[in-house]
Amino acid sequence: MAFHGKVALITGAGSGMGRLAAQRLAAQGATVAALDINEKGLQETAKGHENIHIFPVDVTNTEQVNAVVAQVIKQCGSLDRVMNAAAIMPYGKIMEHDTANILQVMSINYGGLVNITKATLPNMLESGGGDFIIFSSMLGQMPVLFTGAYSASKFATSAFAEILAHEHKDQGVRFACVCPPAVKTPLLQQAKDTIWPKILDENPPIQPEDVLDLIETNLEKNKFWVFPGKGTKIGWIVRRFFPDAIWKHIHKVEGQ
User: Fold this and answer.
1) Domains of the chain
2) How far is Cα 115 from Cα 64, in angstroms, rounded to an integer?
3) What does the pLDDT read at residue 256?
4) pTM of this prediction?
5) Residue 13 pLDDT more than 80?
6) Which residue, 84, 78, 160, 157, is CA-closest to 125?
7) Among 212, 15, 36, 186, which residue's Cα sits nearest to residue 131?
C-alpha cells in the first residue's frame, strides 16, 4: 500500500467505496476519520474497527465541514491522506430531470469537494506531505446521454483536481484523480433506479477493490490520473481525439 502515514480522512465513508477504503486503511493500522451525512452508515463502517472515528457531516455545508475537519485534526492529528468519495448519482434527461436535483448533484459532487479541499489541504501542505485523492469518473471524461447532471459535476471535479495538482506541484502532497467506469457499489444502484444508459452495459461493473488497488499503485508511481478497468484509458484517449465517432456510437446504441 502506498499509504505511509498515520491519519486518513475519508468522505462518503458511510457506504460503498468510501467504506471499503476506510476499513482497508484501518486494517493497516491507520487512524481513520470517516465522514458522511449518513450516521447509521458510518456506524456500520466503524463496527469492529476501534481506529475508525465517525464524524457526521453535510459536505455541502462549508461552516460544518470546516468545524468537523478542525475537530478531526485536534482529535486524530495532522492529515496524511484525504480521500473525497462523497457523491450522488441520479441520471435523467436534462430537460426531464428535476432542476433542484440537478443542482444538488453539483452541490454534493463538486461543491463538497471544494469544501473538503479548502478545509484539509492547508494542513497537509503545512506538514509537507500526504496523499490527496479525488474521485471523479469516466463520465467526467466521456459524457453519455442521460447523465447530464452527474457528468457535469464530474467534469468539474476532473478540472478542479487537475488544476489543484498543478498549482501545488512539488510541494510534497501526492495528488490523484480517479476516473473509474461503473463500479459495484450502492451508488451504481442509485443510477439504475433512475434511468440507465444502454451504452454503459458494454462493459460490466468492476470491483471496488480493483479501484482502490490501482490508486495505491499509481500513487507509488506518482501518476495523477487513475483509470481503473479494462479499456478506460484507451477510451479517454479516443474521446479526446475522436469525439464525433464516440457520440455516433452512443446514439446508435441508445436508438436516439
Assistant:
1) 7-254 (3.40.50.720)
2) 9
3) 85
4) 0.95
5) yes
6) 78
7) 212
From the list 3, 55, 146, 150, the catalytic residue is: 150
Q: For this structure, is 110 an active site residue?
A: no
- Mean pLDDT over residues 14-27, rounded? 97
What crossing angle do the helices spanning 232-241 and 243-254 adopt, rounded to 10°? 110
Residue 34, pLDDT score: 98
What b/e sequence results for 145-156 when a residue is b if at least 16 CB atoms lie within 10 Å of its CB, and e otherwise? Answer: bbbbbbbbbbbb
For every residue of the chain, DSSP letters joined together read ----SSEEEEESTTSHHHHHHHHHHHHTT-EEEEEES-HHHHHHHHTT-TTEEEEE--TT-HHHHHHHHHHHHHHH-S-SEEEE-------B-GGGS-HHHHHHHHIIIIIHHHHHHHHHHHHHHHHT-EEEEEE--GGGTS--TTBHHHHHHHHHHHHHHHHHHHHTTTSSEEEEEE--SSBSSHHHHHHHTT---GGGGGSPPBPHHHHHHHHHHHHHTT-SEE--STTHHHHHHHHHH-HHHHHHHHHHHHT-
Identify the bridge partners of residue 35 per DSSP, sorted by sequence position.
11, 55
Looking at residue 2, what is its pLDDT? 79
The C-alpha atoms of residue 145 and residue 2 are separated, in whole angstroms, by 36
Q: Which amino acid is at 153?
A: S
Look at residue 247 and tell me whether its pLDDT is greater than 90.
yes
Q: List, for residues 157-207, the tens digit of each pLDDT value.
A: 999 999 999 999 999 999 999 999 999 999 999 999 999 999 999 989 999
Residues ≥6 apart with Cβ < 8 Å to 118 = 62, 66
